[in-house]
Structure prediction request, 276 residues.
Amino acid sequence: MNKILRLLPFVLYASLLVYAGCSGSDEPKPFDCARTDLAISLATNGDVDPTSCTSNDGSITVAATGGKEPYTFAVGTGSFGSSASFTGLGAGTFSITVKDANNCTKDIDVSLTAPGVPTVTIEKTEDTNCTSPGNGTITVDASGGTGPYTYKLDGGAFVSNPLFENVRSGSHTVVVKDNEACTITISTTVDKGVTGIDYVNDILPILESKCNFPGCHPDNGDWFTYSVAKTNAANIKSQTGSGKMPKGGSSAPNGALSASQIAKIACWVDDGAPEN
Prediction:
């Protein structure tokens, strides 16, 4: 009996760990970035123009305030790092993004100019596809410099067509080059439109097929009822996106969520968690 009593705390602790592994409705919710006071601005004398249309000696320095430190920064589609200064830049418009410890982001567009470069404007349409490929578009209109022009999107090759189709939502980089090899870089963002993913037809079947088993749901929250699921929408997106739901991942009774299912849940939440 004494041996059993000595083991009891360990049994209870293990049980709590198992329970905590499932995404219950009482888990902490992700920070609501709509309430953040995070801000980004151009530092004093923070924009240095390149000296010519073919040089990459421009630079941008920004400053962040508010939110939760530490901050990380990225230019365009680049990776985030601790430095708020970006060097080696040519002429163009650059989107600089700050991300804080709550994973909230803010961005600012900064333009660098150089003699002889073309002038560029961008027109875009939203991406309303939930999964790849996207269906957004980017249309480039160039003038000035010396035509004809060629155009490059992200890491692609230069092409003569100024229209880019099947573009996913998010940050993109457009480079325009004229006939004298003068280039201008534009950082732009294609917005995510309403995808049409709804709870009744798309999300509920996923939850019922993957998350409906003892010890997970509805034991830890009745996400099979729309009103409850909508209230917990941000948490559902967080838990499924991180792989914490369904409990057990690939070892769950019906396996882990597919990448397409995770994307649909994220789209549903981003669309405002509509019922149908």
Q: What stands out?
A: The chain has three domains: 33-112, 119-190, 194-276. The first helix runs from residue 2 to 20. Residues 119-190 form a domain with the Immunoglobulin-like fold (CATH 2.60.40.1080). The chain is about 20% helix and 30% strand.
